[in-house]
Amino acid sequence: MSLIKENLKYSKDHEWILVEGECVTIGITDFAQSALGDIVFVELPEVGRTIEKGTAFGVVESIKSVSDLYAPVSGEVVESNTDLEASPESINESPYESWMIKIKLSNETDLSELLSSDVYQDVCNS
Fold first, then answer.
1. 3-state secondary structure the chain
2. For residue 7, what are the CA distances in angstroms to 4, 18, 44?
3. Alpha-carbon distance 13 to 32, whole Å?
4. Into how many domains does the chain fold?
5. CA gap 28, 100 in Å, rounded
6. Residue 125 resides in a domain
7. Is residue 120 part of a domain?
8. I need a labelling partner for 52 at 20 to 30 A (CA). Which of 16, 72, 92, 107 fits?
9. Domain range for residue 35?
10. Torsion sign, CA atoms 88, 98, 53, 32
11. Residue 43 located in a structural domain
12. Any idea what the CATH number is for the domain that residue 60 is in?
């Protein structure tokens, strides 16, 4: 059973989102890292890049597959977790501490389309 934190929002693409005012922190969920298997490589966007909701912003590679990371919101990347490039396995060890990017929101209505922990649990169960 995957760990799902109640204080976070979620996307159908299995990203978790921590909302902090006009900025959000994004990572992949416990369910996603478990499905991927051992993560060996992460490619994240540079600070200053503008990303659009629904588009790929990076890549995560595991021993099983390569997967695009999709932006759950639109905005400007204000921080990128470069530590993950050196130790991508930390995502498997602690997915909710191993954030990927921080975004300054350009459209707050994007947040209304994110899932609550209960709804995300249903997504994982189906």
1. CCCCCCCCEECCCCEEEEEECCEEEEEECHHHHHHHCCEEEEECCCCCCEECCCCEEEEEEECCCEEEEECCCCEEEEEECCHHHHCCCHHHHCCCCCCCEEEEECCHHHHHHCECHHHHHHHHHC
2. 9, 8, 24
3. 8
4. 1
5. 8
6. no
7. no
8. 92
9. 9-106
10. positive
11. yes
12. 2.40.50.100
Tens digits of per-residue pLDDT, 58-78? Answer: 999 999 899 999 999 999 999
Tell whether pTM > 0.85: yes
Nearest to 108 by CA among 18, 22, 8, 1: 22
Q: Residue 117: inside a domain, yes or no? A: no
Strand partners, 50: 76
Whether 117 contacts 18, CB under 8 Å: no
Burial class (CB in 10 A: 0-12, 13-18, 19+), 117: middle
In whole numbers, what is the pLDDT of the chain averaged over residues? Answer: 95
